[in-house]
């Protein structure tokens, strides 16, 4: 499922943050969206998931134009936000049931997946707890479990590694690799590039709302020296 952003300009109300942004995330690959604070990464994601309307440009997922077929388009996407969003009155089990209903999942298959993921993230004994009472990292894990029980073809993950313990980071990377092998496409933003560099196929570097560089991950240090950590 390839994602195409073509000449996207957009932002908030009168404020134009993104200027003529174009990039493609090819089928079954992982693209890292990088840039300094305020460069427009989350704004790009907000456009892709349909929270913001473009002032100009097109966003398509395979042949589905976001503006023309919003429901078909959004059904293909799993989004993990930077700040976990949990419902105050729902237990962990109810959060998972809600995801299954929203994505029209086969409950038996989805619960088998959920059980495995809950064990992986050490949440298996917390099904009747309210995630609002969880730690930040635990709430993040709830978001990951909710996303990975779906059959979404495109995963969008905003800053996945901050706040997760080292075991959870490795488990998440393994899940990403596994789905990638099944043809799932990933777009993720991160400031922790060294964690993702072996798993990413390409990067898009945003600077002041514009694409300043893009290319293969292996060319990152050459193309974006200003974001490369000097270990000398
Ligand atoms: N809700 C909003 N209303 C108005 N302006 C916003 C809003 N959210 C972000 N902005 C502005 O848009 C610009 C880009 O912000 P954005 O959150 O996309 O950056 P980012 O690259 O995700 O940054 P970070 O690495 O800090 O998460 C900033 O100038 C910011 O002030």
UniProtKB/TrEMBL annotation:
The protein's name: ABC transporter ATP-binding protein
Pfam family of the protein (one): ABC_tran
SMART domains from the UniProt entry: AAA (SM00382)
Source species: Weissella sagaensis
Residue ranges constituting the ABC transporter domain according to the UniProt record: 3-231
Keyword ATP-binding assigned: yes
Keywords, in A-Z order: ATP-binding, Nucleotide-binding, Transport
GO MF entries: ATP binding
């Amino acid at each position: 499922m390839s994602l195409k952003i073509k000449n996207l300009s957009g932002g908030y109300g009168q404020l134009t943050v993104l200027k003529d942004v174009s990039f493609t995330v090819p089928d079954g690959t992982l693209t890292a969206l990088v840039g300094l604070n305020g460069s427009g990464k989350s704004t790009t994601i907000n456009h892709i998931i349909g929270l913001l309307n473009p002032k100009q440009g097109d966003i398509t997922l395979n042949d589905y134009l976001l503006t023309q077929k919003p429901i078909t388009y959004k059904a293909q996407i799993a989004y993990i936000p930077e700040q976990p969003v949990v419902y105050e009155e729902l237990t962990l089990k109810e959060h998972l049931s809600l995801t299954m209903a929203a994505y029209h999942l086969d409950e038996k298959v989805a619960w088998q997946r959920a059980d495995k993921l809950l064990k992986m993230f050490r949440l298996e004994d917390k099904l009747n707890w309210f995630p609002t009472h969880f730690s930040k990292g635990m709430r993040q894990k709830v978001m990951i479990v909710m996303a990975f029980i779906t059959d979404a073809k495109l995963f969008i993950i905003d800053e996945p590694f901050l706040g997760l313990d080292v075991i959870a980071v490795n488990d998440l990377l393994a899940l990403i690799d596994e789905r990638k092998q099944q043809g799932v496409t990933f777009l993720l933003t991160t400031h922790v590039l060294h964690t993702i560099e072996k798993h990413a196929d390409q990067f898009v570097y945003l600077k002041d709302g514009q694409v300043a560089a893009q290319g293969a991950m292996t060319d990152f240090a050459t193309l974006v020296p200003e974001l490369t950590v000097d270990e000398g």
